[in-house]
Amino acid sequence: MLQAIKKYDSMKTVIEKCNTKVLEVLESSNVREAKIAAESFKNGGKRLRPALMILSSLAPTGGPIATVKPQLIDLAAAVELVHLATLFHDDVIDEVETRRMQRSARAKYGNHASVLAGDFVLAEALLLVQRSELKHTLPEFLRTIRVLIQGESRETAHKFDFDINEAAYFEIISEKSASLFSLSCKVGGLSYHSEYSDLLGHFGWNLGMAFQMIDDLDDMLDLPRGMMDCDLKNGYLALPVIRTLNQLGDGNRQSFVDIIRTGDFTREKEKQIVLLCRDNGGFDRTTAEIHKHLDRARQTLDRFEADGEAKDLLNSVVVDLKSYADLQMDGFVEFSEAHS
User: Fold this and answer.
1) Cα distance between residue 328 and residue 340, in whole Å
2) Are 233 and 93 in contact (CB under 8 A)?
3) pTM for this prediction
4) What distance in Å separates the CA atoms of residue 236 and residue 319, rounded to the nearest whole number?
5) Nearest residue to 115 via CA among 98, 96, 92, 99
6) Terminal CA-to-CA distance of the chain, rounded, Å?
7) How far is CA 91 from CA 88, 177, 274, in A?
8) d(CA 269, CA 288)
9) 230-282 residue pLDDT tens
10) How far apart are CA 318 and CA 315, in angstroms?
11) Are the CB atoms for 174 and 205 separated by under 8 Å?
12) All domains in the chain, ordered by first residue
C-alpha cells in the first residue's frame, strides 16, 4: 500500500533502529508472552506509525532524517508496541486465524496467551515512554490508549448493527485507528518542542481516518482484492455498506441484510453486495471521504514553510494512499463487471 517510507535510505536506517529497539525490549524478558510478541513482530508490518512520528518531528523545520534523537527512537518503538498490543487483542475479539500471512498468536498459542502478550507489550510501551523523559508524552500516550479501548468497545457493540449510521462509523474509526496516527504525529512534534504539535496531530488524524477507510475496503469482502479477511462476514460494516443500507427501501434493504446475516459469501453473493454498494452511492461516498481527509492532510503540510526530505516523505504518504484508494475502486468496478 505504501512505498513512500522506502524512498530514502536514511528512512530505512531509522526504521531499522526502531525495529532493533522493539526487539531489544521484547527479547530482554524471559516470559512466554515476550517471546510470542517478538515472534509476531518479526512477521512484518508497514511500521507506518513510528515512521510518521519521526517524520513529523522534522517536517516543520526541514531537518534531515539523520538527526533523529535517540529518545525519539524510543518513542517510535513505543507507538509500534502499542499498535502491536491492539493486534493481539483484536485477534482474540475477532477470532482471527491468520495475521500477516502467518498463523495468529491466538490460533497458535491460544486466547489467554494472546491477551497476556498484548498486555505485556502495552506495559513495555509505557515504560519506554516514561524512560524517554520527554515532557508531555506520557499523558498523550495514556489518553490515546484510553480512546483506543473506547473505540474497540464501541466497534464491538455495533457488530451486525444494521441501523448504524455514518456518524457512528466515523466515531469508531476516529477512536480505534486515527487516534494512534494522531498520537504518532503529535508526539513527533512534542519531542522537538514544536509549536506545531497540535497541527501535526491534526495531520495524523486525517491521515488515519483515510487509512482506516481504505483498510476497511480491503477487508470488507474476501473478494475482489483477494485479501481473504472478510470483515462483513464478522459483522463489521464498512462505510459503503452503511451508506447502501441507508439508501435502500424497506424490501431491498431487508434482502441486503439477509445476505449479510447468512454469511454465505459466494462469488455471486459478493458481486451482488458490490453492485448494491456501487448503485446506491456507497463507493462514491467512501471515495469522497477518503479524498477529503487526504486533501486536508496535504493542506496541513503546506503550512510548513521549510522544505526537506521529511515533509517530502509525508506528502508522498498522502499521494500513495490516494493512489491506492483509486486502485481499490477500480478493483471493485472490475469485479462487478467480470462474467456479468
Assistant:
1) 20
2) no
3) 0.94
4) 27
5) 92
6) 29
7) 5, 15, 26
8) 26
9) 889 889 999 999 999 999 987 889 999 999 998 888 888 899 999 999 999 99
10) 5
11) yes
12) 4-337 (1.10.600.10)
Return phi, psi of residue 98, to 5°. Answer: -130, 150
Cell 525495529 locates to 19
Nearest to 301 by CA among 52, 131, 128, 1: 52
Over the stretch 139-151, which tens digit does the pLDDT of each residue have?
999 999 999 999 9
